[in-house]
Amino acid sequence: MRQFQSRGLILASHPHLHKGYVLKIFTSQQGSISAYLQSQKHLDPLLCSPLCEAEWLLQDSYDRDLFYVREATIITPFLAIRQHLSSLQWAGKLLQIILTTQLPQKPSSPLYALTIHYLRHLYPETPHPSWFSSFLLKLLKWEGLLHHPLHCTVCQAPSRAILPGESYCLSHAPPFSFRFHHVEESLLEKLLFIKNLKDLPPIPHGQEVLREIEALQSYATRM
Fold first, then answer.
1. According to the CATH classification, is domain 3-77 in 2.60.120.430?
2. DSSP E strands: which ranges in the chain?
3. Is the peptide bond before 129 cis (omega within 30 degrees of 0)?
4. Rounded Cα gap, residues 156 and 37, in angstroms
5. Which residues of the chain register pLDDT less than 50?
6. Which CA distances in Å does 215 have to 54, 177, 179, 209?
7. How far apart are CA 158 and CA 119, in angstroms?
8. 167: phi > 0 → left, psi -120 to 50 → alpha, else beta; which?
């Protein structure tokens, strides 16, 4: 059967009949996949733990939705994130977003690179709401659900409300749009286009804005 090699990040892991693990892996070549990893005497526990990036040698199975793990070599276990509860919780939120938004076996190399980039720049001192909000906005843009510039599609005024694929000023915003009353357009643009994550700005009323961005992401996922 066909074999292929790819980098991949473990999103979730489930024991299977005490003989192995069914892993959800976000790969650079095949997108989100399910793979069976057989238990071995000297198996590194990190290889069956979420938040571990590895180089995987995978093989097709008779079940088209499941691959077999033939070899795996750890690349980045993200040990620094695991040592701080707050960072670990925010990393878990990011993994959950990838797990729930990405269709099985949908190639997405740029999104994989973006995910690894954000995880590599997650530190205890990182403004976590800004970090997560920035990732969500970039994900929406990558999926084609957030357009730039962030101007009203009706009158071109600065937008203060968003729907997937559209943005509005408050005068033209539909009642069911997601409104960002406490954040300026320049802040949204900085979060969306920032390259150096060390420069992430803190968000005023961070948790409220984060909830609005998460609600927009959830709405877009259900479309």
1. no
2. 3-16, 20-27, 31-38, 53-60, 67-76, 161-163, 166-168, 178-179
3. no
4. 53
5. none
6. 32, 10, 11, 10
7. 31
8. beta
HSE, CB side, 13 Å, CA atoms: give it for residue 136: 28
Tell if the pTM clears 0.70, that is, is over it.
yes
Nearby residues of 136 by Cβ (< 8 Å), 6 or more positions away: 97, 213, 214, 216, 217
Q: What confidence score (pLDDT) does residue 115 get?
A: 98
CATH 2.40.50.140 residue ranges in the chain? 3-77
* From the candidate CATH numbers 1.10.1060.10, 1.20.1440.120, 3.40.720.10, 1.10.260.40, the one assigned to the domain spanning 80-222: 1.20.1440.120
Specify whether the CB–CB gap between 212 and 179 falls below 8 A. yes
Residue type, 22: V
Q: Where in the chain do CATH 1.20.1440.120 domains reside? A: 80-222
Rounded-to-integer distance, Cα 109 and Cα 29, Å = 6
The radius of gyration of the chain's CA atoms, rounded to the nearest angstrom, is: 19
Q: Give the dihedral of Cα atoms 18, 24, 29, 30; nearest 10 deg.
A: 100
pLDDT tens-digit map of 58-105: 999 888 889 999 999 999 999 999 999 999 999 999 999 999 999 999
